[in-house]
Design brief:
single chain, alpha+beta, Alpha-Beta Plaits, BirA Bifunctional Protein, domain 2, 3 domains, 9-stranded mixed β-sheet, 17 helices, 22 strands, 34% helix, disordered N terminus
Length: 510
């Protein structure tokens, strides 16, 4: 079947060819006449397989044959009634038709399923789930699928097509990563330091590399600075705006990441969590004995005895939404404002590690607010104004603000909202005098209905529920502050110096 002119006007032209057999409970060839089946097939081609498609479009049974208890079908189609949908329709229709002859449909077997679609020449694919062969030629991508009846009922072909559309969109955004638009620049501020603050902190014994990758042990001095930053945030933003503290989990099961959307691409950056398949000591005896004999941990033996159940906290707010999942909330309690500061976040930075600002393990205060669309957008503006005053009146740093549209938002169809500055992120960036580079150290994000929809949270009134979040990375705040002002308290702004007090000196090493 060639594509119609209507079809050629679409964004992605597609052709489908499917060969399948319907397995029946009795002999069709001995019970139903050939002419009767021919008339039924004509009816399906004219009506059943055209339903919901524009004129001249839809699916068609191109060939059919009957052999005993099996009905062989070759279906061709366009994108409007995809061949797998056509087959599922036919299974039901044949069931009704054959039911008059006391024959039922027991199942179906997929012999071949080929999908072809227009495709960019430079966008190469090597492997796709449920696809046994991929060919790219003449501006077309041709897929040979490995699917069964259960796969069709699970909408696997549609999900493959959606995956391909995502890959095309991601390629369009690849390289630029995200849109960046300057919104605001602070006044110029004096810099009192021109070295990497991490190196100086190490020299002074404020911090030391921990045993893990991208992980630091913070001594009393840097810990005091962290707690001061937290207290400034509490006193000047969280408490005045009416935020209440919660404790969010730091282990995240896969089901949470599926609902939050992170399961689409978190894999290269996640820190995975595994549990023993059993606590039976006998099951682990071999591992224990090996270590006792060799003083080496047998990782290969351990890997066979554990199973992955999720990962460590990556983005801090998704686990919170389980608290709200499936609930209907009254409009009068909006807006809801909560925050969490109960533990670390973890991301595998893949070679981008540097100092205290680019880590695998970091400390963050996560701020979450929930309301209707107007409330969420308005509160984001209030947060922006309050951050400006904190950066000016306590840290006295030089910074700028930029509106960004992350590439994943374009993939999810939210680029239009981002262009309207409704859904998206404001990044705060500060210059690092020792390198001249700008470091993103703070953000305010309006996430729209992403999380309420993902976790099935609704308003009593039926109005759309939105949310926003803002992550305060304590390492990032400290990194930009110390890079510009240095480690000597007499160079710090008086309000910050007063809030910190005298830095403790606890350790001395010989």
């Amino acid at each position: 079947m060639r594509l119609s002119n209507y079809e050629k006007g679409q964004t992605m032209n597609m052709e489908f060819q499917l060969k399948a057999e319907l397995k029946c409970s009795g002999s069709v060839s001995e019970t139903v006449s050939s002419s009767e089946i021919t008339d039924f097939v004509k009816h399906c081609n004219a009506e059943v397989l055209k339903k919901g498609a524009p004129p001249g479009c839809g699916a068609e049974i191109e060939r059919w044959n009957v052999a005993g208890e099996k009905i062989g079908l070759k279906i061709v189609s366009d994108r409007f009634v995809r061949a797998h949908d056509a087959l599922l329709r036919l299974k039901n229709e044949f069931g009704k038709f054959l039911g008059k002859h006391r024959i039922g449909i027991r199942g179906m077997e997929i012999e071949e399923y080929a999908i072809a679609m227009e495709w960019e020449e430079g966008l190469m694919l090597k492997k796709l789930p449920f696809v046994k062969e991929i060919k790219q030629e003449g501006g077309w991508l041709k897929l040979s699928l490995d699917v069964d009846e259960f796969s069709l009922e699970k909408r696997i072909p549609d999900r493959i097509i959606r995956l391909l559309e995502d890959k095309r969109e991601a390629e369009k955004w690849k390289g630029k990563k995200e849109h960046w638009e300057l919104l605001f620049e602070s006044n110029k501020k004096p810099f009192y330091f021109d070295k990497d603050p991490t190196e100086e902190m190490i020299k002074r014994g404020w911090i030391r590399h921990a045993a893990g990758r991208g992980q630091w042990i913070h001594g009393p001095q840097s810990t005091r600075i962290f707690r001061t930053l937290e207290r400034i945030l509490l006193d000047n933003l969280l408490e005045p705006f009416g935020y209440e503290e919660m404790i969010f989990p730091k282990f995240v099961p896969w089901d949470v990441w599926k609902k939050s959307g992170h399961a689409k691409g978190i894999y290269p950056e996640a820190y995975y969590v595994c549990t023993p398949k059993t606590r039976d000591p006998e099951y682990w005896e071999e591992v224990s004995d090996y270590y006792k004999v060799t003083n080496e941990v047998p990782l290969d033996m351990i890997m066979k005895r554990i199973e992955n159940v999720g990962g460590m906290c990556y983005a801090q707010c998704p686990p919170f939404w389980i608290f709200m999942q499936g609930k209907i909330i009254p409009d009068e309690i909006l807006p809801i404002k909560v925050f969490d500061r109960s533990g670390t976040s973890h991301r595998y930075e893949s070679g981008g590690l540097h100092g205290i600002e680019r880590l695998d393990e970091f400390h963050r205060v996560e701020i979450v607010w929930i309301g209707n669309k107007e409330q969420v957008i308005e509160h984001a503006k209030q947060l922006q104004a309050k951050y400006r005053s904190i950066f000016d009146e306590f840290l006295d740093i030089e910074w700028r603000e930029a509106w960004v549209t992350p590439w994943f938002m374009a993939q999810e169809g939210k680029a239009g909202l981002a262009e309207l500055k409704e859904v998206g992120t404001i990044d705060y960036e500060a210059v690092l005098p020792y390198s001249g580079k700008w470091l993103e150290f703070q953000n305010v994000s309006v996430n729209g209905d992403k999380y309420p929809k993902g976790f099935s949270v609704k308003l009593q009134s039926g109005e759309e529920l939105w949310s926003g979040c803002s992550g305060v990375g304590l390492e990032r705040w400290a990194a930009v502050f110390l890079a510009q002002k240095g480690l000597d308290p007499d160079k710090w702004h008086a309000r910050f110096r007063s809030a910190v007090g005298e830095l403790p000196e606890v350790f001395r090493f010989l």
